[in-house]
Design goal:
This protein is mostly helical. The chain contains 26 helices and no strands. Helix 6 runs antiparallel to helix 7 and helix 7 runs antiparallel to helix 8.
């Protein structure tokens, strides 16, 4: 039998509630005074609804002292909001000790977030999960992830997912993908997507794209777009562009661009140029350029000069792009300065060194792998990677090995052909393999990506492909 705390019976100090139309307040007050725990609980709730926190607390204490679990839970909530942490913990623990799942989950959360007591929190989350708390199952999964216990994490995520937690189903997809279990990833993303989880639909679309199934990917992107997923709109724009359906591509890119995505603002500008809509192209290039996008600034500058005869505006944006190291913008700016009798400044811009850039998109399946890797590695803030950089790494390897035929060893061949140390080429190949075949090695760190990116750019330059 649960031992409840002693509660003082200051009944005379608490006035009865205002009479309800049906006499409910009078009846409850009489029953509560006579020792009816259920009536005392309901009376406390009635006072709480009328904004009398002190009276509500008194009657809940009266009911909890007589063994009413709901009142003990309410007192935990009351003290969490209006009282002390220790009192809140005490009442939650009393309710949780009777098997109340929500009280156990709330107790665990306070212990973890307010007291930093992870072992005790874990115990009460387990108690709550055993009593059917989906929220507790998910928190246990995340705690296990933090501790590196991925097998247990997947078990708890699975339990939460099967109980209807779509976010845990989405997480299961990523845990499967990161371990190289693409079938498992596909299963759980589909499970969550069918329940209306837009991110799961989008990532399943990326996986199908990576597996060279653009038609299947499009179905998933459309599903995600129904929930206004900007990435899905961008992917649908790319698919329409690949079919040369410019009007549809424009609609999707503009939809994504409207959410502030700079890459899609630039793409919307390019499509509008193709459709001979200079005004709309200027709008989208201008928005992307104002956000610091050098390529958009370059194109905006050219457009202002060619379509609007705005030499001053064109020069401004060419200068902005050139200042960020955009080689073609520097060349155009030098030409413009020469034509306006500013040869000395023009010479300075014409001597801007050409840096090894990446101005071509990777194959769709490679870009999809890059985005999945970024999402998987950074799902819980663990690693911050960049989609464009990973796409450049994958695209570089694809470019430099495209014409090779078996049984040539690409690493040896590239090292000999370029003069790069074989270890650097091996590192590039290893990171590429991890991105294409997850689970074979941990995701690369940002520092590792930076080194490999330098190798990729040096390799293109030495082979004359930059």
């Amino acid at each position: 039998m649960t031992m409840w705390p002693e509660v003082s019976a200051r009944i005379a100090q608490v006035p009865p509630p205002r009479p309800a139309a049906d006499g409910e307040g009078d009846d409850l007050h009489a029953a509560a005074q006579a020792g009816d725990a259920r009536a005392a609980h309901l009376l406390g709730r009635l006072y709480a609804q009328r904004g009398d926190r002190s009276a509500a607390r008194h009657w809940w204490e009266r009911a909890a002292g007589a063994g009413n679990v709901d009142s003990a839970f309410n007192l935990g909530k009351w003290h969490e909001k209006h009282g002390s942490l220790e009192e809140s913990l005490r009442w939650y623990e009393l309710a949780a000790g009777t098997g109340d799942a929500e009280a156990a989950a709330n107790l665990a959360t306070l212990l973890l977030e307010q007291k930093g007591d992870a072992p005790a929190a874990f115990h009460w989350y387990e108690t709550a999960a055993a009593a059917g708390s989906r929220r507790a199952s998910r928190r246990l999964a995340l705690l296990c992830e933090d501790a590196g216990e991925l097998t247990r994490a997947r078990d708890w995520h699975r339990r939460a997912a099967l109980d209807g937690d779509l976010t845990s189903a989405h997480d299961l997809g990523f845990l499967g993908y990161s371990c190289g279990e693409e079938g498992d990833a596909r299963h759980w993303w589909e499970f969550a997507a069918r329940g209306g989880h837009a991110e799961a639909a989008y990532h399943l679309g990326l996986l199908l794209h990576a597996l060279r199934d653009p038609e299947g990917a499009e179905v998933l992107y459309r599903l995600a777009s129904q929930h206004d997923h900007p990435g899905a709109a961008s992917q649908l724009g790319n698919l329409a562009l690949a079919r040369r359906d410019l009007r549809t591509a424009r609609a999707w890119f503009e939809r994504a661009a409207g959410t502030g995505r700079v890459d899609d603002q630039r793409m919307a500008g390019f499509v509008c140029v193709e459709l001979d809509d200079a005004r709309a192209a200027s709008h989208w290039f201008g928005r992307a350029a104002a956000s610091g996008d050098a390529e958009a600034a370059y194109n905006f500058g050219l457009l202002l000069i060619a379509e609007h005869a705005d030499m001053s505006g064109g020069e401004h944006w060419l200068r902005q792009a050139a200042a960020q190291g955009h080689y073609r913008a520097a060349v155009e700016l030098a030409t413009l300065l020469t034509a306006t009798d500013r040869a000395m400044e023009a010479e300075r811009w014409s001597n801007l060194p050409k840096t090894p850039g990446w101005d071509r998109p990777a194959e769709p399946e490679l870009a999809a792998r890059a985005e999945l890797a970024v999402a998987a590695a950074g799902r819980r803030g663990e690693t911050s990677l960049d989609v464009a950089e990973l796409s450049e790494i994958l695209g570089t390897w694809d470019m430099v090995t495209r014409r090779l035929r078996d049984p040539i060893d690409p690493i040896t061949w590239l090292s000999e052909k370029s003069g790069l140390h074989v270890g650097a080429v091996e590192h590039l190949a290893a990171v590429r393999a991890t991105l294409l075949r997850p689970g074979t090695a941990p995701w690369p760190t940002p520092t590792e990506v930076e080194r490999v990116l330098e190798t990729a750019r040096d390799l293109r330059k030495r082979l004359g492909l930059s």
